[in-house]
Amino acid sequence: MNWESWEAFWAMGGYGLYVWGSFGVTLLCIVGEVWLLRRHRLQTWQRLKRMKSWETQ
Asked: In Å, what is the CA distance from 29 to each residue of 9, 26, 35, 37, 40?
């Protein structure tokens, strides 16, 4: 597609709010998923360290 200006590009033919909103929600979900995965990985490592220390006692 060809747009006459940047304003027309951002408006996306009247569907800009839907298009950019969808991108925003998708980005938010991806960032949230990565954050949750990192948090759970850290919790799992901490749990494994505790289990290992119980074995050595």
From this structure: 24, 5, 10, 12, 16
**How far is residue 45's CA from residue 36's CA, in Å, rounded to a whole number?**
14
Give dist(CA 56, CA 38) in Å, integer. 27
According to DSSP, residue 2 is labeled -
**H runs (alpha helix) in the chain:** 6-11, 16-56
pLDDT single digits (tens) 20-47: 999 999 999 999 999 999 999 999 999 9
Structure tokens at 30: 């991806």
Q: pTM, whole model, 2 decimals?
A: 0.72
